[in-house]
Amino acid sequence: MDLTQVSSTAKARRADRAAAPRDASAAADLHDALFDERPFLRRLTALDWLFALALVAGAGFALSRYHAHMNYYDKLVLCGTVPALVVLGWRWKPARLLMAGIAVLSIGAIQIYQGDLARADQAFFLKYFLSSQSAILWMSALFVLATLFYWIGLLSRSETGASIGSKLTWAAVLMGFVGLMVRWYESYLIGADVGHIPISNLYEVFVLFSLITALFYLYYEKHYNTRALGAFVLLVISAAVGFLMWYSISRDAQQIQPLVPALQSWWMKIHVPANFIGYGSFALSAMVGVAYLMKERGVLADRLPALDVLDDVMYKSIAVGFAFFTIATILGALWAAQAWGGYWSWDPKETWALIVWLNYAAWLHMRLMKGLRGGVAAWWALTGLLVTTFAFLGVNMFLSGLHSYGKL
């Protein structure tokens, strides 16, 4: 061995010894992050508390500025929402940036309006970006583009394509929530008696459904570190967007209308979101079921997550959806007692909601008690989407009853 080789070997060994402490330190940091046994609150940083303080300050501003438009129950809902958002931001860090973006763009749009609804067609940023209709159109276009890029990423094994799809989905969620927030403000510009939270008709709840489904997917994408499911989940969101566009064009549904008497209740602010968290989770589980069935049959098998991962996502989605759908059903019964004098009247919407609840209750029972897994569970989740779709949309199209204010 010549002197040059000896020198090179010595340098390499010295470099290895120098790098070893750094590698050990990095491994220790990773271990501490994964197995930190301190109580959750002890693990929070100054940034976490600053985020919580910002949300509390925002809620305080809303209460001081708009308390005249809020009754006791509205204020209670707002105060209850703040800790829920704080915990969400603590547990899921990307949600913080989303909340900040929604706040900045929504407040910016409100400032541009200057209390005059006519500025929606006059001010550049309102007309093309931040009015409710413009923002929701952007949301729709971004969801369709995200679907395209997710499929490009899946079929071509392109991480870049999937990454673009993920970023487009985040942007779509941002614009959709901005659209809903601004629409809420626009309803009050029309008239104080018209103003209401924008979850009162099919146009608005289809926007809400798309956003909730996308948010749940983005959480699972981060949690399981895979973007392969985006191609499937975004399909059902794009279908909702397609219906939304058809409904807007054929029925002029994007116009803000006064609430019908049955919906003039604070119950709507908690019943409808809880319901659509359930619907969104059920839709997501069905599309994951499609991915499971394809992988089981060898279609795109090498590009999809492992079967046990798909099974776990499907189970967690149904479990979360079932919990919120149960809460929504109970809240709906309480609302019905106040509005119609009885907790249950076997109205078509109520009956089909019960069918949906029983379907997923049976799925969870078979899972927990009998170990239901595999293709049967996936087919059942997919069939559940058909049942849920009829309860969500079909009842409005083909049946009439106390909920007929939602007819197409």
TrEMBL record:
It is found in: Membrane. One of its GO terms (molecular function) is heme binding. GO terms for biological process: cytochrome complex assembly. Pfam families: Cytochrom_C_asm. Residues 1-20 are annotated as: Disordered. InterPro entries: Cyt_c_assembly (IPR002541), Cyt_c_biogenesis_CcsA (IPR017562), Cyt_c_biogenesis_CcsA/CcmC (IPR045062). Residues 200-403 form the Cytochrome c assembly protein domain. Keywords: Cytochrome c-type biogenesis, Membrane, Transmembrane, Transmembrane helix. Its main location: membrane. GO terms for cellular component: plasma membrane. The chain crosses the membrane at residues 46-66, 97-115, 135-156, 168-185, 197-219, 231-249, 276-294, 315-340, 352-369, 376-399. It is a multi-pass membrane protein. PANTHER family: CYTOCHROME B_B6 PROTEIN-RELATED, HEME EXPORTER PROTEIN C. This is C-type cytochrome biogenesis protein CcsB. It comes from Paraburkholderia acidisoli.
